[in-house]
Amino acid sequence: MWIADGDWSLQAKASRRAALMQFYRYLVRTGMMQNNPVETVPGIRRPRPIAKQPAPEEAVMQGLVSADTEARLMVQLCSQVGLRREEISKVAASDIVAYGDGYALCVHGKGGKDRIVPISALLARDIQAKANGGWLFPGKGERWLALPRQIQGALLRRSRISRDQKGHRLGHTQLPSPFRPYLV
After folding, report:
1. 154-176 burial: b if 16+ Cβ within 10 Å, else e
2. 0.85 exceeded by the pTM?
3. How far apart are CA 143 and CA 139, in angstroms?
4. Tens digit of pLDDT for each residue in 121-137?
5. What is the number of other CB atoms lying within 10 angstroms of the CB of residue 100?
6. How many CA atoms lie within 13 A of 104 on its CB side?
7. Distance between CA atoms of residues 124 and 131, nearest Å
8. Are 12 and 2 in contact (CB under 8 A)?
9. Is the pLDDT of residue 1 over 60?
């Protein structure tokens, strides 16, 4: 069969099989064919992708000790809370809520979905102090928020984290165990 022929990746083969499957399902549904011949073709198993690698501990620690308050807050929100740059750009002082004995952050995520994430009292205080009742990272001029790409650039540039450490990798970081009780 032509799906197996050629030097295609497993993803390409799976995509072609799926396209054929949908095409023949349509033909069966509209009565142009009696059965779907692709149903007899075995599925194509794709290997599981390698888990995303976290940023090195040294890069995270360098950002956490940054003298730049905004950069330090960005690193904390990535590494300790697990926020994406888009979510960081939407943080406001009003997103800090009481949560049990401590605090939580209402995160405005992808697809308009909100979630509550516990944060330390120190981080809650720093966010409220920096945001001063408004947005944590307001935009310039007429815009009401910083753009996610501006957050990414500021995060890497101002925290002095090397360029090969993408900001997204900070979200996959687990803090070193001696620091966890104090920072999270």
Report:
1. bbbebbebeeebebebbbebebe
2. no
3. 5
4. 999 999 999 888 888 88
5. 7
6. 13
7. 11
8. no
9. no
